[in-house]
Amino acid sequence: MVVVEIRAPVYDEESGQVEWRLRALVKADGAQLEITGDTTVLGDKHFSVVDIQTSARLSRSDDPEVWARNLPHAYRAGDLVARVVIDTNPPDVPVEPEAPRDLPIVPAPPPAADRTGAVRSA
Amino acid sequence: MSLPLQDRVNLLQQATADGSPLEHLLLGDRVLTIAANGTGNPGASVTYLVVLESRRQGIFKPFAGQHPNACANYQQDPFEAIIHEVAAWRLAHALGAPWDQLVPTAVLRVLHGAGPGVLINWRRGSPDPAVFEQANAQVCAAAFWDAVIGQQDRHATNFRYDAETRRLALIDNAFAFARPNDLHNQSLFLAYRRSTHMVTLNGDETTALETILDSEDLLGLRLFIVEDRADALEARARDMLERRLLPLPGDF
Structure pTM? Predict the structure, then answer.
């Protein structure tokens, strides 16, 4: 069984803190799939994800558990975040650690005085 | 031969000299708060919600935060995937409307506690399929955009639509600039245009392709992304212009 929550960060001006609000809950158990909450954040039945272990593309009807388990890797934008909260059968294949690399250095942007010539409306 | 990553990072940052006011704001506005998404999945890609002093919000993706397996699946390098977010914005900015309205503004920045990465302007909305009914012109422009940049994963939740303002946002351009035979998951907008028999390029689209191809460096892209990805984009653009047609989804 896999339970995944889809949540969104919300900045609370009063507290100055970021809170996480649950948008939808996905429960997959074998061939059974239950989605509660705002189902629009899960797209339609054709919403396919790529299995992190096999690179296979699958939709919810192909294998609900594997589909649900891979949701965190499909939500990469950050405004909606999928989080596995229960997984009774986590994948055997470990996540491959990336070899250490030197991070690029991001230089300061050009000074403002140099950036006034061709400003376009956003 | 591709320039080293660090050189391309430097060139991307220099390119902000012609940046939009929003780009400048994202580059320089003071950070009010930054919060990790707190995912409970070891190894899942790391993102942060960033609130700027102006109260504008953004999503920050650190160079070190990309999931290695996800990148490997899509034949993407974790660092290059971050570069792609900014390169995509720079291309949209160079092309102008409607594409610079669809693609979120993105800049390279260093954030205390998160390191170097890309700060992407927050776009309102949800993956609302109402966009297909209410904003057809934006959907069509999105299909063209995904075709040009070789978007690999425009799945059913990989866009945001704000029905109130009727604005579509094409979020997450990290897994893009694909090469022939790279993995393709979904291309929602391209599939829509094919299903509705709107595969012929319009005048704005052919002009955009001509603009890209007539420039010396693919509107700067050759300075920002690796050579084989730039070559693939150029070949794709030439093919689209010659045929006056959108390619099949995944035909990179």
Answer: 0.94
